[in-house]
Amino acid sequence: AQTVTQSQPEMSVQEAETVTLSCTYDTSESDYYLFWYKQPPSRQMILVIRQEAYKQQNATENRFSVNFQKAAKSFSLKISDSQLGDAAMYFCAYGDTDKLIFGTGTRLQVFP
Amino acid sequence: DAGVTQSPTHLIKTRGQQVTLRCSPKSGHDTVSWYQQALGQGPQFIFQYYEEEERQRGNFPDRFSGHQFPNYSSELNVNALLLGDSALYLCASSGSSGGFFHSYEQYFGPGTRLTVT
To answer: How close A46 gets to chain B, by Cα (Å)?
Structure first.
C-alpha cells in the first residue's frame, strides 16, 4: 500500500524568506502523481502544485517549486518570498488514477 | 463557473443517528470522491462514484454508504453514528476521459463539519 509521510508537524518562516517542507512516500508503482495542497482555516483544499512521476523536470508555480527525487521517493515543496497569506496547513499527497493518499500535514506559520 | 459545493456547512448529530451529506461536482466533472478528515489529520479516502456506481472504496465500514445521481451529484450517508465519526467530510470532483480518471484534477469542496455528541 502507498504511504505518505510528512515529518515536520510545524514550520515557521519570516515574511519574504524561503522555507522548504518535506515529504516522503512509498509506492511500488512507476506511474503516479504527487501534489501539494494548501488548507487555510477556511478548510478549502487548494491545489498548490503537482508533479507527474514520469517527468524529470521539477514543477514550478510562481513562488512555489518542488524538488522531486524519484529514486529517493522524496517530494519537497519550496516556498520563496513567503507571504502572510501562505500561512496554512500544507498536505503532501500521492495520487493514482483513482484516489489521493495524504500525509498528516505541516502547519506553516509566517511571521512579519 | 461554480466549483464543488457541499451542504450543509455544519451538522450536529447524536450517537446512533444517521446523517446524509451532499455534494455537487464542478461543472463538467462526472466523478465524485469522498474523504474524511479527522482533526489534526490528513484526509482519508472513503469511496469514489462514477456512473452512479461505487468504483473504489477505502478502509471504511459498511455504515458509510453513498449514492450518485444522474446529474453527477452525490450523497454520503453514515448510519449508526459514533463519536469517532466526528470530522470534516470533503467532497472532491474530477473528470474522466474514455474511462481514464484524472486524480490530478481533483477539485475539493469546502467540506461539511460533522460533530457527533
So the answer is: 7
